[in-house]
Each structure stands twice: as C-alpha cells, then as structure tokens.
Amino acid sequence: MLHEIAEATRGFLDLLDDRQRTAAVRDVGDDDLRTRWAYTPGPRPGVGYGELSRDQRKAVHRLLACVLSPHAYAQATAIMALEDVLDDREGGTRDRHQGDYRTVLLGEPGDEPWGWRVEGHHLSLSVVVADGRVSATPFFFGAHPARTTYRGRTVLQPLRLEEELARELLDRMGRTARGLAVVADTPPPDLKTGNARRIGDLEPVGVTPAQLDRPARGLLVGLVRYYLDRLTGDLADEEFDALEPDRLHFSWEGSDKRGEGHYYRIQGPELLIEYDNTDNDANHAHSVWRRRSGDFGEDLLAAHRASVRHE
Question: In 10 A of CB 244, how many CB atoms?
Fold first, then answer.
C-alpha cells in the first residue's frame, strides 16, 4: 500500500512543470501549514485542480484513489462535482467550481517523512507518511446540497450512509438507551471542533456500549467501521485494530425527524467522529473523522523525530 501511495505521488510530481512544482511542494516540517486546514471556501496553498492539464488532473485522482476505498473515492468525486451544482443554485454569485480544489505536497517520497493534502470546499484529506506508516486524518467529507431529489425521491446523496446508519442505531437502541444518547433538543450550528488544529477537551457524552444491547453495540461499531473504511483495506484495518470499542460514547443532538436539523458524535480515547446536517433547511451535511494524537501525522512525526535524535 505504501508503495502505491509513493508511486502515485511521484507520478503527480513528475507531471508538474517548474512553476507548478514551486506552488505545490512545501516542507513537511512547516507545522503551521501542515496543520492549517479548512472545509469552507477560501484560498489554500498548493496547485489548483483547474490549473492542471488532463493528465495532471487524473494524477490527482490517482492520489485519492490509492488511499480511499472505492465507495469513499466515489463520494469524494461527487462532492467535488457538487460545487458546480451549488454554483448554479446560487446563480453563480460566489463563482464556485470544482477546479478550485488544491493539492499541496509536503516533501517528496524518498525523503521521509512526507505527505500531501487534497482540499477544497467540503473535502479535506491529509496524508502523512513516516517510517513506513500512514496517517490520514483529519478526514472531512461534506455535501451541499446534501440530498438532491426528484418528486420526493433521492437522486443523489453522497453522505447517505453517514446519516442512515446513525439513524438505524438510534432507532434500534431502545427507549432507555435512547434517553441517554439524546443529549440536546437543539443541534449545534456546525461541527463542535470546526477546523481546529487540535480536538481539545471535548467531554464524552451520551450512551456507552455497556448501556446498549448486543445488536445496538454491533450497529455502533459498524458505524465507526464505516467511517474507517473510507480508507483502503490495509489502512482501514490498522485503524480498526487500534479502536477501543468498549470505551466509545455515542450522542445525538437535535431532531430525529428527517429533514430537520440534527448532529451526532462518536468519541473514544483517540477517536472522534462528528456529523451535522443543520444549515439550508437540513440539506447541508458535514462529517469528519479525527484522531486525538494522530491528526496531521503528529504521532508518526513525533516518533520519527525521537528516533532520529536517538540515532
């Protein structure tokens, strides 16, 4: 897997001219740049997707496809395409376009550590490689419109399972557990951690696996696994093996009725998953998977720097 990621990165680099390479390649040791991320529209470092040739754009997609599972890659491409749909709905007033996504390389393969980030409105994937290991959080997917319909029936909903699997868990857990899980009648306006560089002291709330019956516990773990399975097989398996399922908390805020604003959070010692759909009449979804000590490859970089000092 690491070989495929490195080859895809080299393939993208080899297609860049000198000007593009200057814009795209930064130092992985630039901690400010590496940890500065956003899921809202705005300027970003790197080279723009719309500035690239056809072969170069395909190379960006190979970067994504070598890290993402097939279903998550499909989600990512749909999210990017929605920028033009949203631009049309807004009458072009904000000049959105899928060409606005940018790729920044953090160092180059062969000079560990290294990594890259592909980011734009409603998509952020940060990859860091150090000592043969891969980090890929924060991992953000969003969608606006979250759901496109025809006569009340869904045509496109990129984050459908992020919502449906959580609703199934809430519906199946029973009245007592549900009373513990629903912690507020009104959802927050956005993800509680936003685009903070660190998760911070977010208190775990809600229901725990010990308070759920066996089927509901399975649904909770399955929902977490779905987020981890945004990554391709080996990477997802490694993340799942590090999970402490008995120490999870699941909480829900807002309405349980479809089409009304809602939010949920899954939290463990290292894991944080947040999902909200509140804006634009609950048709604007955000979701993120984060790791407390591992976002932006912090744990891998710390171990690498310690080993270098020891040597």
Answer: 10
The 10s digit of each residue's pLDDT in 179-196 is 999 999 999 999 999 999
In this structure, are residues 154 and 147 in contact, taking their beta carbons and an 8 Å threshold?
yes
Q: What phi and psi, each to the nearest 5 degrees, are found at residue 177?
A: -65, -35
- Per DSSP bridges, beta strands 102-106 and 25-26 are parallel
The residue-averaged pLDDT of 29-49 equals 96
Among 241, 237, 291, which residue's Cα sits nearest to residue 269?
A: 291
Give residue-wise pLDDT tens across range 267-292: 999 999 999 999 999 999 999 999 99
Give dist(CA 251, CA 182) in Å, integer. Answer: 6
Q: Which of 277, 222, 279, 229 is nearest to 250 (CA)?
A: 222
pLDDT classification of 311: cutoffs 50, 70, 90: low
148-174 average pLDDT score: 97
Provide the residue count of the chain.
Answer: 311
Own/partner contacts of 42-48, CB < 8 Å, gap of 24 or more, are 44/102, 44/104, 44/119, 44/120, 45/102, 45/104, 46/102, 46/103, 46/104, 46/105, 46/117, 46/119, 47/16, 47/20, 47/23, 47/102, 47/103, 47/104, 48/99, 48/100, 48/101, 48/102
Return the higher-pLDDT residue of 310 and 94. Answer: 94
Contact 102, 259 (CB under 8 A): no
C-alpha–C-alpha distance, residues 249 and 91, integer Å: 42
* pLDDT at residue 238 in the model: 95
Percent helix / strand / coil, the chain, rounded to 5: 45, 25, 35
- In the numeric block, which tokens belong to residue 131? 């000592």
Output the pLDDT for position 31.
94
pLDDT at position 111, please? 81
Buried b (16+ CB within 10 A) or exposed e, 100-129: bbbbbbbbbbeebbbbbbbbbbbbbbbbbb
Q: Residue 211, Cβ neighbours under 10 Å: how many?
A: 17
Helix (H) or strand (E) holding 240: helix 233-241
In this structure, which amino acid lies at residue 118? V
